[in-house]
Amino acid sequence: MARIIGGVATSHVPAIGAALDNGKAGEPYWQPVFAGYEASKRWIAEQKPDVVILVYNDHASAFSLELIPTFAIGGADTFAPADEGWGRRPVPVVKGHPELAWHLAERLILDEFDMTIVNRMDVDHGLTVPLSLMFGQPAEWPCKVIPLAVNVVQYPPPTGNRCFRLGQALRRAVEAYPEDLKVVVFGTGGMSHQLQGPRAGLINREFDTAFLDRLVSDPEAQAAVPHLEYVREAGSEGIELVMWLIMRGALDAKVVERHRFYHVPASNTAVGHLILENA
Ligand code: DHB
Ligand code: FE
């Protein structure tokens, strides 16, 4: 059967992708950010997952206010990097795993999570930046990637609890797939950040640290935290953190924290990152 061997949580700040693409990763501002992912790159190179299920949000690249799926799963063969205004990122086209993706869609929908199935979609920084952070700059991404997009852009986003339960259902769905596949789930976005309005630039290290601690050791409690607390404490875009609960729900109740990284600032945000393994 297919099984989930671990989880990765990471911010997906677009400027990180731009720094890599423009050869600025070694500059003093960026070097500490990339240094925080060195151990993670070794970890994932050793794990050699066959498939990454990558939980992220689209930032009005593939979807817009005309179409707002709460949860969408990508069933296509390939997903091109989106043009977010500066041309497409010079990164490999993402190769999907349609067979597994359709299996997951079927299982999740029959498990009462009404996924939107997307058969053509460009993927923006929310998906490509985490791949760059974890895999560097290869000619091809080393594994298949199934995009799982979550609406955290237009109110109302799904609750943390709904995300956590979706993660649990995702695990059941993966484990019902007959082929032996090693799967890693990524939860992306966050940490505290607000990109607009009078509180632009808001960072809350205390909230972020407590979130990381609770995500690891008491995810049920973190799942009960309402939207308002994220927005108040972590800024308007801090709500992206609910996506980490999907990754966490897909793992065991008890996990081993293999790696943690927290860094301020990157662009206007706090960068947070975890590598978790089932205990
Ligand atoms: C920025 C955008 C994001 O989507 C995000 O998650 C973090 C930062 C930005 O524009 O800086
Ligand atoms: Fe984002």
Structural notes for this entry:
The structure is a single chain. Helix 1 crosses helix 5 (125-135) and helix 4 (98-110) packs across helix 6 (160-175). Helices cover 34% and strands 22% of the residues. The chain is of the alpha/beta class. It has ten helices and ten strands. The longest helix has 16 residues, at 160-175. The chain has helices at 14-21, 31-35, 38-47, 98-110, 125-135, 160-175, 205-217, 219-223, 227-234, 244-249; strands at 3-10, 51-56, 71-74, 78-79, 94-95, 116-118, 144-150, 182-188, 255-266, 269-278. The strands form two sheets. Strands 6-3-7-2-8-1-10-9 form an eight-stranded mixed beta sheet, with helices on both faces. Strands 4-5 form a two-stranded antiparallel sheet. The two termini are 19 Å apart. The model has no long low-confidence stretch (mean pLDDT 98). Bound molecules: 3,4-dihydroxybenzoic acid and fe (iii) ion (FE). Residues 12-15, 59, 189, 193, 195, 237, 240, 267-269 line the site of 3,4-dihydroxybenzoic acid.
What hetero molecules are bound to the protein chains?
3,4-dihydroxybenzoic acid, fe (iii) ion
> Which runs of at least 5 residues are low in confidence (pLDDT < 50)?
none
Q: What series of H and E elements makes up the topology?
A: EHHHEEEEHEHEHEHHHHEE
Average per-residue pLDDT, rounded, comes to: 98
Distance between the termini: 19 Å
Strand arrangement within the widest β-sheet reads 6-3-7-2-8-1-10-9
Instruction: Please report which band the strand proportion falls in: under 5%, 5-15%, 15-25%, 25-35%, 35-45% or over 45%.
Output: 15-25%
Helix content: 25-40%
Q: How many strands, which pairing sense, and closed or not: the largest β-sheet?
A: 8 strands, mixed
Structural class: alpha/beta
- List the total number of helices: 10
Principal-axis shape equals: globular
Radius of gyration: 17 Å
Total count of strands: 10
